[in-house]
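Incident review: delayed structure delivery

Summary: a single-chain prediction request sat in the queue longer than the usual turnaround. Root cause was a stuck worker, restarted by the on-call engineer. No data loss occurred. The affected request and its eventual output are reproduced below so the record is complete for anyone auditing the incident later.

Affected input:
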Amino acid sequence: MTDVALASPRPAIGFFERYLSLWVAACIVVGIALGYALPGLFGAIAAAEVARVNLVVAVLIWLMIVPMLLKIDLAALGSVRQHWKGVGVTLFINWAVKPFSMALLGTLFLGWLFRPLLPQAEIGSYIAGLILLAAAPCTAMVFVWSNLCDGEPNYTLSQVALNDIIMVFAFAPLVALLLGVASVTVPWDTLLISVALYIVIPVIAAQLIRRALLAAGGQPALNRLLGLLGPVSLVALLTTLVLLFGFQGEAIIANPLVIALIAVPILIQVYFNAGLAYWLSRRFGVAWCVAAPAALIGASNFFELAVAAAISLFGLGSGAALATVVGVLVEVPVMLSVVSIVKRTRPWYERRALA
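Output delivered after worker restart:
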């Protein structure tokens, strides 16, 4: 007997969601162009940070995730126990597969296949950056991906919280093992501030707003606010994309081949881990509303921590820092493609489960 639940009717697709791929492509082009044309402006925005956490991006992420968090009823978190298989799949992918598969892919592509095309002195640093990227599972942005594919919000929150706890203890030794160094300097201020900014404070704020709305006007009042915030969340996502590509506009134009080559193992790793998590979830009879975010959590990365760790260990101008930034650049468009894939394959996923 599986824990598959019958699908509820899907909400109508809005204008922004229907043409999201087009908006993403436009934002990438606009971001690169603005970053190249106005490096001073984007440099000033990039400098607005605390412990290497950019405050402007943090505000945008708040605008993205608070509407998703408003949908979560903390009293219902206990029900996540019925999705223990999905939790197990994601933990397995995040901590037993993803860092090691990235180390293998980075060595294969950057250390061997692409070696003649890359600066020889930076190859080891590039691979180290990829390992740092893969060793940190995604936090805040997962709420966005889960919401876009109608994922189970209580599962998503529980899984993110569990990953954050594990990351505090496992990030340093895991990276040390894969990089072959005796000790790793973990940017604890970045890790703790990021968790507070992107998880703790938004969850508390969203729950206070949710309770106030339900007390004043009930579910209709909450639904009205969610309807108003929906477009705001997507605009914040697209603005974040413009900023991320704008921050690196000059680097992209100056080093297009290097960036494209570094992106290859990242792309393969994302689709491999997402596919593996999705397949394992189906194999174990996990409900699609859990399998979809499980695939996304298994594939995405906590790029703020990865970039900060790369800068701390190797320096701002290092190949490791560049590799983690490439991860940032591909994160949003690639994860949107994964969202599209899991949504399109839902009938296939549920056909066997319901048979």
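Verification: The beta strands are 49-50, 53-54.
Action items: add queue-age alerting; document worker restart procedure.
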